C-alpha cells in the first residue's frame, strides 16, 4: 500500500457518544478516588460562589460577616440543588450553583433609593436581601411551569445540532471576562497557575506514563495547591506590603475577610433574613435573569451529557431539568441568596478535563458543599484562594465547555452556505451585541435602551448582555425559518441525526442514562 493511499483523506466517523471518556455517568471510580474528585469539583465551584457575593453584598451595605454568611448560604443551597438535579432532574453530572446573570438585577435592587432610609448597614442589607428573595421566589415560577408543563420540551424539540452549536460555544466563551482579566489582577500567581494546569493535565501525561492517571484527573488540585502555597509564601515574605490596596486584595491570601467573618458553625435556614418583600419591577427583572439562566443551563446540560459519555438529552429530560432548575431558584430565594440557580459551566469543563463523568462524583461534591457551608471557618479558608488562581482555572474550564459546541458540528454540513451563515452570524452577534450593551453602560452610565421605565431598561440589559442567549435565540430562529422547505435543509442542520433523540423512547440508551431512580419513571414517564 502506498503512502498516498494510507494518507487518503476520509471524514472522521460521527459518534453519538464521546469516545475517550474514562468513567461515564453510571460508572463509578473507587470510593477514595471519587471523594478526591468530588472535592475537586467543590473547589472549582467555589469561585462563582465567592465572586457573586463579593460583588453584590457591599452594594447591599454588608461587610465581611454578611459576605461570609451569603457564601455559606450559596454553598448550602448549591449542595441541595445539585443532589436534587442529579437524582430527579436531568440525572446528569452537573453542579447547580449561582449565576453571574443575576448580578445586574441584584445590584439594581441593592442600589434602589428606598433603602437609603436605612442608616444601619445590617438593616439595609437585610431589607435589600428580602426584596431579592421575593423577586427570586416568584420568578422561579417561569422555569417550573416551562419545565413541568412540557413547554420547554416543545421548545427544545426544535433544536438541531446547528442551532445548539452557537449556544454551547457562547455559554463558555461568553464568560471570557471572568478568565484572563481575572487572572491579570495578579499575574505573578495567576499565570503560573495557568501554565502549571496545562502542563499537568495536557503535557506531562504524554511524557510520564503512570499506572494511575494522577495528573489527568487531579491537575486542578495539584496546581492550585502548589500556586496557593507560592502565594502564601509571597504574602509572608512581604512582597505586597507596600503595593496598592487592590493588588493586595487580589494577590494576598489573607485579604478576603472571609475567615474573620465566618462563624465556626452556622446552619443556613429558610427566611433567615426575614419575610421576603415583593416589588413587581424587581420580579420582572429577575424573570429576565431566570430566562437567561434557563437558556444557558440548557447548553450546560447538553455539554454535560456529551462529556459524561451519555447520549444526547431527549427533549423531555431537558424539560424535566428545567423544572427542577426552577425549584432550585425557589430554594435559593427561600434560604436567602442574591442569585438564582444555573448549571455550573466550570464544572462541566472539569468533566472534560478529568474525563470522569460519574454521577456519584458530583453527588459527593454536593456533600462537600453542605459540609463546608455549615463548618464556616474551614470553608472560609478554602474560599480565600486568591481570585486570580480561579481566573486561571476558568481559562481552561470555560474553553472546554465551549469546545462542546464545536463537537456538534460533526453532524452538520459545513459545506453548506446556509450552515456557514447561521453559524457565523449567530456567533458574531452573540459577541457583538453584549459588547455594545456593556460598552454603552461604561461610556454613558446608562444602558442603550432608555424607554423611560427603569425596569424595562434593566430587563433588556439582562437579556442582551448574555452572549449565549443572543447567539442561541438567533441560531434557533434562523434554523427554523431560513430555507425551511429546501430538501437539503434537514440534513444540513443535522436534524436527521437529532430525530432519534427528540423523543425519549426512540433510542433505547435513553433509559440507561436518564431514567428516574426508585422506579419513579413508572409514575413520571418521559415522552
Automatic annotation (TrEMBL):
The keyword Transmembrane applies. Signal peptide: none annotated. It holds the Pfam family Xan_ur_permease. It is a multi-pass membrane protein. The keyword Membrane applies. Keywords: Membrane, Transmembrane, Transmembrane helix. InterPro entries: NCS2 (IPR006043). It is found in: Membrane. It comes from the Eukaryota. Its main location: membrane. One of its GO terms (cellular component) is membrane. The chain crosses the membrane at residues 39-58, 94-113, 134-155, 189-208, 220-240, 283-304, 361-383, 389-409, 421-438, 458-478. Belongs to the nucleobase:cation symporter-2 (NCS2) (TC 2.A.40) family. This is Nucleobase ascorbate transporter. It comes from Solanum stoloniferum.
